[in-house]
Structure formats: C-alpha cells, structure tokens
Amino acid sequence: MPELQTLNCGNCGAPLEIPTSVNYVTCRFCHSQLHVQRTESVVFTEVIQSLQQETSRLSEATEVLKLKHSLLELEQNWEQKLHSLAVQGKPAFIQRPNRNLAILLGILITIAGIFLFAFGVLVNPFFILAALLGTPLVISLIVREFQNRNELAEDAVHFQQRRQELLDKIAQRERTGCISCD
Ligand SMILES: [Zn+2]
Hints:
The protein has 182 residues and is of the alpha+beta class.
C-alpha cells in the first residue's frame, strides 16, 4: 500500500487522499487538474487548470469556430447566388436601379403603344393586336427587371452587413476571449 496523505484541493477545497509518490492529480469533486507542491515544510495542491476554465475556454473556441463557419457559409451562399446570376461569365450587375428612369421608360412605352394602337385603327388591325399584347408585356418585363435588380441590390447590402457583423463578433471574441459578450 502506498502511503497516503490528505491534501485539500486547491480549487474547491475538498479533502483528497493522495499517495505521497504522486505529483499530479485530478480532483474527484471539481475535476480540476492539480499539481502537488512539496516543499520542506508544507505540502499543498496548486490548480493547473480547473474544469470550469477548461470548459469555458473550449466553449469559447467552439463559439468562434461556429461564427467562422457561419461566415464561410454566408460567403459561399453569396458567391453561389452571384454565380447563378452571371450571364455567360459576366458577373451580375449589382446597382440599385433608377426608379425615375424605369417610370419614364414605362411612360414612353405606353405612349408608343397608344400610337401603335391608333396606327392599327387607321391602317392595319394587326397593329391593334400588337399594341394590346405588346405594351403590357414590355412594361411587365421592365417592372420585373426593376424588381430583380432592386432585390439583388438589397441582398448585397444585407450580405455586407451580416458579413461585417460576423467579422466583428469573431474579432471581438478573439481579442478579449470573453465568454458571454454578444
Ligand atoms: Zn476540487
């Protein structure tokens, strides 16, 4: 039987029976890793790492990893979206469309439609059909193009904001190593 000595855990204070030959021990109450310090006059345990410290360090690292994963996912999704919108290798056009220009274009098309309709009444009924079908079609195409570009421009802003948020959070956590900051 090895000789046992009773020492208190340096973290939680619980009494631990430790063989005199052992220098490192884990507290069976709080699971801290302890170093048994033996000087000529005193013997005591020193906390190397408490479970709490270790756990919070790990959960912090996990949190940073999760954030980095979210960032990667966000960037990949955005790349994918841009890629899917690219036409023959040309990157998607991201700029908020000009509302006034779209309205002006709509008015011009309507006027052209009215002329086409009048021309149809006076000359050839075929143009009446062309005016009645063509005008709404062209206008709806303009409206859709406007909406698509507007949506894409908004998505781009949202992507940048979300990306910056994540970058800030990662930087903050890596700088302070703080556990509960949001
Ligand atoms: Zn302990």
